[in-house]
Amino acid sequence: MGTNDKYPEPTSRRRFVKGVVGAAALTAFATLGETVVNLSTSPAGEGGGTVEYYGVEVVGGPAPRAMPQIPVALDDEGFLRGIWPPAEEVTREGRTFSVARMRLGDITYSGDWFQYCGAEIFPGLEPTAEQDDYFRYAESAQYEWQTREVSPGDRVNVDDFADYERWGNGIGANGLGKPATVTWRSQDVESSEVLPVQIIRSARVASAAQNDEWLAASTEEGFIAIFDKCTHFCCVPLFKADPTSVRFDAGSAIYCPCHQSVYDPFTIVRESFVAFPRPEGDE
User: Fold this and answer.
1) How confident is the model at residue 92 (pLDDT cuts 50, 70, 90)?
2) How far, in Å, CA of 183 to CA of 266, rounded?
3) In terms of Cα–Cα distance, which of 83, 58, 90 is closest to 230?
4) How many Å separate Cα 196 from the centre of its chain?
5) Between the CA atoms of 234, 185, 69 and 165, what dihedral angle is there, to the nearest 10 degrees?
6) From CA 117, how far away is CA 34, in angstroms rounded?
7) Which residue among 37, 71, 143, 171 has the highest number of C-beta atoms inside a 10 angstrom radius?
8) Are 52 and 42 in contact (CB under 8 A)?
9) What is the pLDDT of residue 277?
10) In 157-265, which residue ranges form alpha helices assigned H by DSSP?
């Protein structure tokens, strides 16, 4: 999004550029309303191979990479759901297993995007898991509006975010967007296996999606969804929820209180990592 809207200063993008000038790394960037593309990859190795994905950029703290996006869609009644790829059977080296993947925008979107922090074994990320994909409000709400206006387990509806262009809670700047804590593909699972998600409805997201292939395919009416596990130590960071975030110039960002990692929900980067092998039970 707009360069003048970046926060906190300085950004990790500037630090990264300084670090690779004259080096052998190959990086491509797109700015001003487009997604930022960072094609530096993890070292090759055993497992499921290199997976490219889109996520919210790390702009501070020790987190090693972006938290992945979950593409979203609104149904005819205004309920918000996360897009889950259709399952298909793949045979490799004599083994046949199911994978969930599809082409979306300019990338292959798959269940492998969420392979970290142990979530790869959660029931909701099984390629053929029978879930309805709708986002539902979390049991433990971190936003006062959420405790007053909706109930845990309710499906998220666009009408719940009618005031998103002016919403504020005294943390960071007002009017950046309205957030909520929700779950995804987690009906009837153990509490330790719930998939946590941060959703935000923002005019910035809607504006950027007008000129960006990926954001046009993965967001709708300003809604963006993020798989909410910090890539550092798997904590659950949040947008404009922790008053102490302002001490780290993160009052208007997604802030992880565990080790002060900061993510910018309005800058989407393309990154990659080496996925795990499929579990033996998926044969």
Assistant:
1) confident
2) 21
3) 58
4) 10
5) -110
6) 29
7) 71
8) no
9) 62
10) 203-209, 213-218
Residue 54 Cα to chain centre, angstroms = 8
On whether the CB atoms of residues 67 and 57 are closer than 8 A, the answer is no
pLDDT at 44 over 80: no
- What residue type is assigned to position 60 of the chain? G
Torsion of CA 156, 207, 27, 100, to 10 degrees: 30
Q: What is the pLDDT of residues 182-240, one digit of tens each?
A: 999 999 999 999 999 999 999 999 999 999 999 999 999 999 999 999 999 999 999 99
- For residue 175, give both structure tokens: 């009017």
DSSP per position, 102-143: EEETTEEEEGGGG-STTGGGSGGGSTT-----B-EE-SS--S
Tokens of 67: 């938290």
My answer on whether omega of the bond before 43 falls inside 30° of 0, hence cis, is no
Q: Could you tell me the pTM of the whole model?
A: 0.83
What the block records as the tokens of 166 is 């002016």
97, 105 Cβ separation under 8 angstroms? no
Q: Quick check: 229 and 118 in contact, CB under 8 A?
A: no
Q: Where are the domains of the chain?
A: 3-256
Amino acid making up residue 151: S
Mean pLDDT of 90-111: 90
What phi and psi values does residue 20 have, to the nearest 5 degrees?
-110, -5
